[in-house]
eEF1A lysine and N-terminal methyltransferase (Eurystomus gularis), 684 residues
Amino acid sequence: MDLLPRSPGEFGSARYWDRFFRQRGQRPFEWYGAFPELCPVLHKYVRLRDKVLVVGCGNSELSEQMYDVGMCEDIVNIDISDTVIHQMQERSRSKRPKMSYLLMDMLQMDFPDAHFQVVLDKGTLDAILTNEEEATLAKVDKMFAEISRVLQVGGRYLCVSLAQAHVLKKAVEYFSQEGWVVRVHQVASSGDKQQFALPVFVYVMTKFRKIPGSALQILEICPEEQDKPMRVESAERLVAAVRDRQHYALLCSQLSKAPCREQLSLDLCDKESGRPRYTLHVVDTPSVKPSRDNHFAIFIIPQGRETEWLFGTEEGRRQLAASAGFGRLVTVALHREQHYEGMASIQAELSEKVMELAPPGLPAWQQVPFLSVGGDIGVRTVQHRDSSPLSGEYVVEDVKGDGTCYFRRLIFLRNRNVVQSEARLLAPTPLPGQKKRRKDRKKTSPAEPPSAIDKSYLCCEHHKAMVAGLCLLGGPNPLPGNPLAVLVVGLGGGSLPLFIHDYFSQARVAVVEIDPSMLEVATRWFGFSQGDRMQVHVSDGLDYVGKLAAEAQYDAIMFDVDSKDLTVGMSCPPPAFVEKPFLQEVKTILKPEGIFILNLVCRDARLKESVLATLREVFPLLYTRCIEGEVNEILFCQPSPEGRWDPTELGARARVLEGALRQPGRPWDSSYTLADMLQAVRIL
């Protein structure tokens, strides 16, 4: 029995609907939205004494159920199908005396003006607005005009819909331009994603008298999990908010049916502000065999650690999920703009929502564990937040690492999962003669990190590799007491030039930074300072190098500069810094035995190969050192082919230099070994 229309236009044909209901018989047909799901929304907007009009009623049980539960009784149902009107009259005549069924076209109704307090539409608008052709839109305009005419001021048009973008946009634009208040409710799901994945929405359009010349629009959305409406500023934003909820429902449906081959990511937003509060990644591990209690777990990433390889990369999360031993692991990152009370409150807040992401076959009795590192949510303190024309919004924040260590980080919010600069903070030490604090006195809050910068500690592995690359300099060992002219392009927090300045006592360091805000950040928050041997030039690195006299003057040139253009597959350096004419300028200001060290971060394999080919054309000797667990690759470029080092000799040079750097009384990171850092260096 084929009940589908031959074309979308048949949805508006009385002949089609007569045939449909004759073939279907007395069995009720519900497009979507069962009464138990719709009831909470209908109760808000339908009162007992309201006169209600149901347009395109079909043989849905919705009117009967509203009547039977006592929601309202004065209900008029209309439809263009004579067949279904007769069926419904017979079905309700004796049981519901105050409810009526009339054969009538909603495009041309016989009711007087302002006759109803509520007009209810369940799927009728969706059935008519099947396309955006001129004739279809004209029919919808006529439908809306008739609904507006028969509704009283203060009356509500309730439209149950799947909210296709063009349907929602048309309804919102029409009624908001008429001065009506438009609110969209997401209907709470029954939980049966196998039966119907798409969420159902109810548009609530409340009629107000149109004020001539007023452009005020009141548009709101009510997600299923909250009663309080959220105001949105435009029809486009309202359509986008609904689309996000549709995508989420489809995602949950897919996750409930089968494991996901790729990691899925989604944001859960704050109910009040609408800003992201949690970022979730769903990681399935097919190799884990299901057992009694290893189906599903939630992992809360401590604040400030979401940038670490284990939590911030696909491969890291895959390794985390495998080691945790769960078939599906959902990692949860916490956002710096939000406040969190603790693990218990996060668990209470997320428990219901994360169950929507549960894997297929999860037993109903299964308790889902919440995991974390050390059982807490970490510590994050935003010390400074600002914006610059060049770098955009940025924050300086202190976060707690493993154990008792604290770190200060610079984050550009346009790329919030990447740490631009990082420094370890020193634990405060008591002054000479200062008494220890009595045990009964209040201890320092764990949320109050120390503030002094540990300048002896290089947090970034690529900085450690760049310093170790000084061993590749030609000539005698680059001992700390030997003169050394270094140019660093890209300041950030200043830890790289600071380390060279402090540990190479005869080094003269010139730093080029295009963004003056970064010089202020480095000075105020990362312990950076200028002096006789350290000078910062606020300039574009391209211009600065181009203006230097074409004569060799630097022993080492280091590029650690990020790209502001995130559309390119290379985030460090900007593409102009690795073009052949500019690289040739770099070579002219480098001494023959000098070294050019470049931090390359490139995810585009073809672009990366092109960059390496250009570097080989300019520099005859090229070494590379990949940073484990990161995209960073450090390139050591030498202007002369005679500078090739034997690995054994290079290791010996590294040990000599490190021995000279490790002076008594001078702090040194015991985990940092120059020879080990250079072991992985290879010639390209």
Notes: The radius of gyration is 34 Å. The chain has three domains: 8-160+185-212+223-228, 258-359+366-371, 461-683. The longest helix spans residues 235-257.
